[in-house]
Amino acid sequence: MMTAREATVFAANRARFTETMQDNSLLVLFAGAAPHQSADAYYAYVANRNFYYVTGIDKPLAILLVTKRAGKVDEQLFIESSDPFKEKWEGKRQTAEEARALSGVERVRFIEEFETEFEVQHRMYAFDHLYLDLEVRNFAHNTSPAHVFVRRVQESYPFLKIENAYRTIADLRRIKQPEEIAFMREAIAVTDAGIRNMMLQAKPGMKEYELEAHFDFTLRSNGIKHHAFPSIVAGGGRATVLHYEANDQVVEDGSLLQIDLGAQYQHYNADISRVFPINGTFTERQKQIYNIVLRAELAVIEAVKPGLPFLELNEIAKRVLADGLKEIGLIEQDEELGKYYYHGVSHYIGLDTHDVGSFRDEVLQPGMVITVEPGLYIAEESIGIRIEDDILVTEDGHENLSASILKTIDEIEAFMAKE
User: Fold this and answer.
1) Residues 289, 189: one domain?
2) How do residues 139-148 score in pLDDT, each as one tens digit?
């Protein structure tokens, strides 16, 4: 259960967005609904992350309406009304009092009233601008409630200028508030516990899904229902497939296990990668490759500070990885690194595991939380190693939020040797 203090972050996020709105404008954001799966089944509902970011509401069909006139902001939240019959099957709807406490929006009404209120607002004040979350990934990505709504608006109010709120909210989401960072710390702490449980239970001959089950059990035992993303639990050569998710093969004696997983707390995510030997002991070759990746990860983390160009992080990783592979004779030229390292070293993390916000021409800023995750994938030796931590950019440098998670060879071997 979220505390009243924690919930204030959503009102603060909303205020930061409304400051960017032009005068004489409206904002409409939709929570969305679960898509239909088949017959009478629906996929699990996932709240629109931008809607959640400014409201704290994770219930379906809710709508936020904000107006700004003469510098004054007025907010209304529309939620599902009570339905005694449906509640016998699905449980109680969120009450107006609960929605008010989470969102900080004082005026809470029912969604049946939204369209009339929108029409009344525009008829009374003749707004000039309408802000909507019009996220677009491709030409087919145009069926969200906001995209459906904007087509109706353009037919009935062709003089209303449409403004895309998506980019502004995405930019705001890059800088985490203290409450958001606290949510991520909790997600990381539970992830740490799950990884330790996997290490303690590991033994040769186990199926990948058996190990995954020990992680899942830890999460559920700590009240965590959701993962940040489908867990990657890859033994041996399967670890050279970046997004391997089958998790259904035997992990043979002498193999490394690559895990990439994370818990989700209050919808904020952890994203951690670790590698450990299924029998508890690294071979000399495994140690050699592992330590190259670890050196690269530590070098990138050490470089994290405000003002550093985001893309420079990957250049640091590439230099260290290439030098390491040249030292052991696996490559001769830096240009050959692409055979064994073929992804970027970092992304934002927050409400989405690959969190939103531009990074190509950006520099690191205090409050950003990023991953650092170099890797080497040597398919001919069935060795895949990626080491990943979640790093907070601070005013004078950085903090490794996941520093407590076992990482060095000595730490891992000592821990796995426990009875």
Assistant:
1) yes
2) 877 789 999 9
